[in-house]
Amino acid sequence: FNLYRRDAVMDSPYNRRSDLQVRYTVRGSIVSSEGEILAETEVDEEGNEHRVYPYGSVFAHAVGYSTNGRSGIESAANYELLTSHINIIDRMVNELQEKKSRGDTVVTTLSSRLQQIAWDAIGNRQGAVVAIDPQTGAIRAMVSRPDFDPNTIARDWNDIINGEGNSQLVNRATQGLYAPGSTFKIITALAYYQKHGTMEGFDYTCTGELTVGSHTVHCFDGTAHGEEDLAQAFARSCNCAFSTIGLEVGADKLQATAGQLLFGRELPCELSYKRSRFPLTAGDGSAAMMQTAFGQGNTVVTPYHMALIASAAANGGELMTPQLIWKVESADGRDVYENDPKTWGRIMSEDEASMLTYLMEQVITDGTGYGLAGLDYTVAGKTGSAEFTLSDGSTGTHSWFVGFSNVSDPDLAVAVLIENGGSGSAAAVPVAKAVFDAYQEIHRS
Questions:
Q1: pTM of this prediction exceeds 0.70
Q2: Which residues of the chain fall below pLDDT 50?
């Protein structure tokens, strides 16, 4: 219990024991990787404490809140925030004088500059952005909109929970389940490669639609892509070609590959999250197989999960353990501990990662990710447009992009989801570009 469950139990919002620490400790601060304050407790002359979030809504879901329950880092690092490692003599003096000691400071991996850019780029739309350093697992940005102001969460609580259903307390990055659209072609392409050991030999002529039995699928906007190999079909995001691939590899193989990439499995995550779902079985028939192969059907995934897949592909197949907490310091500035980067596990081989990187590069240079071509840095990625049914019965389209920058030495993996944003090229790609641009500028300065 002490080895494996202690921290989880202590940080649980249902554990009342940790709240006893409030009697002796002023809740510590949460800061960005640059040292900007994201949350702190102000104490007035009468000793009244007030939790303050200088960035307001920008870090709402990642940092979370500590009133009306806890969420985000406020929950994940609750024990650290209510533990004081200031000089022991100072703690003893405070105790004798019945004063509280300052809790430890949690230094996050989040970049305040990158988070602000991602938040601004989504604007008033609903959606999420996750940005991860694939070589270390450090989460540099995590944005979910619509959001809330943690400064006024207690006052606004009843209005929020009795609102009109925009689910603003839900962290769409880790808890929002969406059809992956054409970003799922990453998994389908990998299944084909695993079965055949090569991308060579695939040839398909797209007329814009494909009918098998009584079921017909169409390419986006009915585009006829003509003759194409696997790389061209991937770059052009050809639904018909990938329906054919799905039928050829079969449900069992596609399910095995999806499981390898953590669909339906637990994810490494410090925050509350939803598992992705891949319910397809061999008995579901050709129509379900065709839809699933290009990211429709009943498959759903979180933006966070897609960012992990992109991160592993960028890192030669090795998934680094994602981290939101870089280190913990005492309130007087001494290191308590630091989280070193560590490997979570390999979810694809180096050869498979190299193959996916090649395909994702073609998306940018010769396909639907053209908005990220010709920059002073390189990008590999995949766009997606996922149809869903609106409350009035009409069809909407979620906009996706997943990928990474600086392909020869990858430095940032990004997943973007814009709810009902239209095509991935139109809505998600510009958001990804704003994040990539800002990251490159930060590291040049």
A1: yes
A2: none
